[in-house]
């Protein structure tokens, strides 16, 4: 299954409101516009907060390469986690093949 936002599988279409009841939004409109709004707002608020934290002077001075190495590892971990989540959202049915010798015989 791949993420395809160009087609709407619901018979009511993209809407934004159903033809039968003008107060009820269509399913495709809710799933593609309304549901992502809190995520988008949270990302924007997080970026604003991150910017304010970057501008604030630090209480503890950053000393040595240990701090930088921990920062790099944390950033790489966050990047890998984000890529894994994105891959699971875009193609949830994809899985790696079984390793050789795992006992799973092809049928």
TrEMBL record:
The species this protein was found in: Piptocephalis cylindrospora
GO cellular component: membrane
Keyword Ion transport: no
Keyword Transmembrane helix on entry: yes
Xref: InterPro entries: TMD0_ABC
Superkingdom classification of source: Eukaryota
UniProt membrane topology term: Multi-pass membrane protein
Pfam families according to UniProt: TMD0_ABC
Protein name stated in the entry: ABC transporter TMD0 domain-containing protein
Residue ranges constituting the ABC transporter TMD0 domain according to the UniProt record: 7-88
Residues annotated as transmembrane: 23-50, 71-90
Compartments in which it is found: Membrane
Keywords tagged on the record: Membrane, Transmembrane, Transmembrane helix
């Amino acid at each position: 299954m791949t993420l395809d936002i160009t087609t709407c599988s619901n018979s009511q279409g993209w809407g934004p409101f159903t033809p039968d009841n003008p107060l009820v939004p269509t399913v495709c409109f809710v799933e593609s516009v309304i549901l992502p709004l809190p995520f988008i707002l949270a990302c924007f608020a997080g970026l604003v907060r991150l910017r304010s934290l970057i501008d604030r002077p630090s209480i503890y001075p950053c000393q040595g390469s240990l701090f930088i190495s921990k920062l790099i590892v944390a950033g790489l971990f966050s990047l890998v986690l984000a890529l894994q989540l994105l891959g699971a959202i875009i193609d949830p049915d994809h899985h790696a093949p079984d390793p050789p010798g795992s006992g799973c015989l092809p049928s």
